[in-house]
Structures are given as C-alpha cells and as structure tokens.
C-alpha cells in the first residue's frame, strides 16, 4: 500500500448507555456496511467492464500473451 498524503483525524467517541442507543448505532453501522458493499460491487463491475472493453480494443495483446 502506498500513502500519498495523510492528515490527522479527530475522533469523538460516545459511550452508549442505553440499549436503544446501542441498537440504533448497530443499525446505522449495518446500513453503512451495506452501502459500502453495494458501492464496492458496482466499482468491481465497472472495472471488469472496462477491462473487457480494453481487451476488445487491443486483441493483439491477448494473442501475444497466448503465444508466450
């Protein structure tokens, strides 16, 4: 992994005292996790489509790889 730049991040931690607060936090975390998973899948799909498109533009590179 290559780090280009970094900056300090301020973090505020709240300790939840009620069961309702803990449940709400768990629901929000699950929602965010689901959104990130969906976004990741969309990005992976777009990369695969782009790679397929690039291979179709340069079939000679594929032939060279197959001969090696």
How does this structure look, described?
It is a single chain. By secondary structure, the protein is mainly α. 71% of the residues lie in helices and 0% in strands. The chain has helices at 19-57, 59-67.
Quick description:
Helix content is 71%, strand content 0%. It contains two helices and no strands. It has helices spanning 19-57, 59-67.
In percent terms, what proportion of residues is strand? under 5%
SSE ordering: HH
Oligomeric composition of the shown chains = single chain
Q: How much is the radius of gyration in Å?
A: 22 Å
Distance between the termini: 30 Å
Q: Shape from CA axes?
A: elongated
- Enumerate the spans where pLDDT stays under 50 for 5 or more consecutive residues: none
* Average of per-residue pLDDT values: 84
Number of strands: 0
Q: Please outline the major beta sheet.
A: none
> With helices defined by DSSP (H or I, 4 residues minimum), what is the helix count?
2
Helix-and-strand structural type: mainly alpha
* Range of helix content: over 70%
């Amino acid at each position: 992994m290559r780090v280009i730049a970094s900056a300090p991040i301020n973090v505020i931690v709240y300790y939840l005292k009620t069961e309702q607060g803990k449940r709400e936090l768990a629901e929000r975390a699950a929602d965010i996790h689901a959104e990130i998973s969906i976004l990741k899948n969309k990005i992976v799909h777009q990369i695969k489509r782009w790679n397929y498109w690039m291979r179709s533009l340069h079939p000679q590179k594929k032939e060279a790889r197959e001969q090696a």
